Amino acid sequence: MKYTVITGASSGIGYETAKLLAEKGKSLVLVARRTKELESLRDEIKSISPDSDVLIESIDLSYSENVYALYESLTNLDIETWINNAGFGDFDLVQDVDLGKIEKMLRLNIEALTVLSSLYVRDYHDVEGAQLLNVSSAGGYRIVPNAVTYCATKFYVSAYTEGLAQELIHNDAKLRAKVLAPAATETEFADRSRDQEGFDYSQNVPKYHTAREMAEFLYQLLESDQIVGIVNHEDYSFNLRGPIKPYAG
What does the pLDDT look like over 144-175, one tens digit per residue? Predict the structure, then answer.
């Protein structure tokens, strides 16, 4: 049995991606901090696809030791796709940031993603059909005011994943790496970025996608031969394309 791992699966894009992949008959490993939400999602997936195996891992990936422990716990599985979706943002001027929150964001958005990607590449470099998908942001290609530090983490994700994708191709690896770059998406992202609950996208954001729409875009990227799936910040169209970052190889 082959599995797809989704980090940050308890809400938003990860949650909807899990349901969409269940509709395709995939077996899943769902990773997030919140056990109750993961259990609810597992029950929902079993009602969608009774034959899908669903494993849950309640773990906080902002702690380095947990990152290695998660991967080690899954080494007995055949993982056809690994989706690094876990992450969060921060809407503050640099002079006003909560450094404790920023340190945690750096560990989750950059360190955990890099370690998990590296471990997966090491083990699945030569496995036909294996895919690594890292979720970045339109803010990983264009700096957003009041979100400089967050955007910098996503610039890293975009550059790292695009570079890895080209490295794999140039070294004749069978594994493929891809990067998804959503723009505004109706999730818990705004609440956590602002440290306030109840953000209403319909009242505050002129254009946005639902989490389900982004999950569908993610699936299109998985099914394509392209490296980047990015939302155009002007008209909110979704585009599949080759690398955007300059590459000297």
Answer: 999 999 999 999 999 999 999 999 999 999 99
